[in-house]
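hey so i finaly got around to running the thing on Secernin 3 from Pan paniscus. pasting the sequence first so u can double check i didnt mess up the copy paste, my clipboard has been acting weird all day
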Amino acid sequence: MEPFSCDTFVALPPATVDNRIIFGKNSDRLYDEVQEVVYFPAVVHDNLGERLKCTYIEIDHVPETYAVVLSRPAWLWGAEMGANEHGVCIGNEAVWGREEVCDEEALLGMDLVRGSS
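ok and heres what it spat out for the 3d tokens, dont ask me to read them lol
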């Protein structure tokens, strides 16, 4: 059966044991697509004049990035889900809209997940 959708969930205290927060996500990626779990340390960037290569486009660097753990397809700059050193968690979902799709290359939703983590 082909994958159909993604779901992200969070369980918060008091519904969890020991007041833990549980964050999870399933993915509609193909079963044989390699998913990496990767860590990127916090960085203060001194190369603000350089551009950052995302999946399809380049964007301006930001002065500082937080440490993150991400789950992502191996070929992609972005991520399916992640958490940063401050405990902020995020997962991507498909959002269906009514607007026409643009033909220009742009940031993917998964690029935004990495940038938000």
